[in-house]
């Protein structure tokens, strides 16, 4: 039977155990709290602008400061852009995205960038904030100072930070002063009129003078052609692409891309993504920008033409050109993605499997496309120069593998053989009878 001292010792022991568990629990929670304090969550990107209201619409220098931009190997643009709908890319942007214009900064470790983000995620750049670029006027639409991912992944919305801006209205032009009336000249005495002299016939202009007179030049249409565009090997097939009529002052990308929904949309996504080395051969960056050198870029010829090869493949990431319509496309490079003047599209198709045989080529295929010349009519971009609907139906008959004389001889032989068979058959009937 337990004594009072035994019960007292048991109760004391239980109390000590309870106190020990409580102490350990508190120590553990304190350790967790200290760890949480030692590793704070990464700060979200934040943006500050030295001036945001009543900016000079012709351009005003502002200082843009960013914090929390822990980009790693990524890059961003800093520019004045139209405020988009939620979830969409801020575009168009003033200056067209050209980082050499002073209206845009490209912060990246890539060659050609105008600056870099510091290791602690901060940056400080000056931007010439203007209100107008092309058809965009930030006095008529809402604009903001913006950071967004660069052209290596424009679909990434993680780095979109917007600070709204306003601009002064354009100052009204002062009316021109009214011209002062000139004093009337004093009347002069009328000189005697000379006797009329018969006029000699005007000499005919020389032929070479007529030809020397300047004539207006018609702008050339951008044209694109490829050595093969149908039933391409989905695993990759080298094709040659030729272009002409391009403006050498503007860079372009050449790639196989998903067909855009409308002529106002940029061809994207493209097979191969952004080629940061110029060595993947899935796409080409064609530009005469002296800030970049081969193999990253390919140069235009002086007349706006080029000839390159690319490795045409069917899939990249979630894009599969065997399941969606794709095109071989040229379009303006990242300096002005809003510019649609260099969009030339040629439809391309791929075999379902690399081992599938090539079908017989269709007559009249020229694998070409072109854009209309500015201010002039022309073929729709990407359509063939010789549409199938316009082909003549009076071509030669299909070849069957049998020449005409051979067919005649074969027919005569069959007639003779049939007659011989009838003679033999009749003789056998007579013998039986």
Molecular structure report:
The chain is of the alpha+beta class and 433 residues long. Among the domains are: 46-165, Immunoglobulin-like; 223-348, Neocarzinostatin-like (Immunoglobulin-like, Sandwich). The chain is built from 3 helices and 19 strands. It has helices spanning 4-38, 207-212, 404-432, and strands spanning 46-49, 60-67, 76-82, 104-107, 123-129, 132-133, 136-137, 143-149, 161-165, 223-226, 237-244, 252-258, 283-286, 306-312, 315-316, 319-320, 326-332, 344-348, 368-370. A hairpin with a 2-residue loop joins strand 15 (315-316) and strand 16 (319-320). The longest helix has 35 residues, at 4-38.
List descriptors:
alpha+beta, single chain, 3 helices, 19 strands, Immunoglobulin-like, 433 residues, four-stranded antiparallel β-sheet
Compile the SSE list and pairings.
Elements: H1 4-38, E1 46-49, E2 60-67, E3 76-82, E4 104-107, E5 123-129, E6 132-133, E7 136-137, E8 143-149, E9 161-165, H2 207-212, E10 223-226, E11 237-244, E12 252-258, E13 283-286, E14 306-312, E15 315-316, E16 319-320, E17 326-332, E18 344-348, E19 368-370, H3 404-432
Antiparallel strand pairs: 1-2, 2-5, 3-4, 3-8, 6-7, 8-9, 10-11, 10-19, 11-14, 12-13, 12-17, 15-16, 17-18
């Amino acid at each position: 039977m337990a004594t009072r001292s035994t019960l007292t010792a048991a109760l004391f022991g239980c109390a000590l155990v309870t106190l020990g568990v409580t102490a350990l629990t508190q120590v553990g929670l304190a350790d967790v709290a200290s760890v949480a304090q030692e590793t704070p969550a990464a700060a979200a990107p934040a943006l500050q602008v030295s001036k945001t209201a009543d900016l000079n619409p012709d351009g005003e220098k502002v200082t843009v400061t960013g914090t929390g931009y822990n980009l790693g190997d990524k890059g961003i643009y800093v520019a004045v852009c139209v405020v988009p709908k939620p979830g969409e890319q801020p575009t168009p942007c003033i200056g067209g995205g050209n980082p050499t214009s002073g209206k845009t900064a490209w912060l990246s470790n890539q060659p050609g960038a105008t600056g870099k983000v510091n290791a602690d995620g901060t940056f400080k750049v000056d931007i010439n904030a203007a209100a107008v670029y092309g058809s965009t006027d930030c006095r008529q639409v809402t604009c903001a100072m913006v950071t967004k991912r660069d052209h290596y992944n424009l679909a990434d919305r993680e780095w979109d930070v917007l600070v709204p801006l306003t601009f002064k209205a354009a100052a009204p032009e002062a009316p021109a002063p009214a011209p002062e009336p000139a004093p009337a000249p004093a009347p002069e005495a009328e000189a005697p009129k000379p006797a009329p002299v018969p006029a000699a016939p005007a000499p005919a202009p020389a032929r070479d003078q007529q030809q020397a007179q300047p004539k207006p030049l018609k702008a050339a249409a951008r044209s694109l052609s490829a050595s093969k565009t149908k039933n391409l090997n989905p695993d990759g097939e080298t094709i040659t692409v030729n272009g002409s009529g391009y403006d050498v002052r503007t860079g372009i990308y050449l790639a196989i891309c998903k067909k855009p929904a409308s002529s106002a949309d940029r061809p994207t996504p493209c097979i191969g993504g952004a080629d940061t080395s110029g060595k993947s051969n899935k796409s080409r960056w064609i530009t005469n920008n002296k800030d970049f050198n081969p193999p990253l870029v390919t140069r235009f010829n002086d007349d706006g033409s080029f000839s390159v090869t690319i490795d045409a493949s069917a899939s990249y990431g979630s894009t599969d050109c065997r399941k969606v319509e794709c095109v071989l496309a040229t379009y303006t490079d990242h300096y002005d993605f809003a510019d649609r003047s260099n969009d030339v599209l040629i439809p391309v198709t791929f075999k379902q499997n690399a081992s599938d045989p090539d079908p017989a080529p269709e007559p009249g295929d020229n694998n070409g496309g072109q854009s209309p010349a500015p201010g002039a009519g022309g073929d729709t971009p990407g359509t063939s120069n010789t549409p199938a609907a316009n082909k003549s139906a009076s071509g030669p008959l299909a070849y069957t593998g049998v020449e005409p004389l051979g067919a005649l001889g074969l027919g005569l032989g069959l007639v003779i053989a049939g007659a011989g068979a009838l003679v033999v058959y009749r003789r056998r009937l007579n013998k039986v009878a």
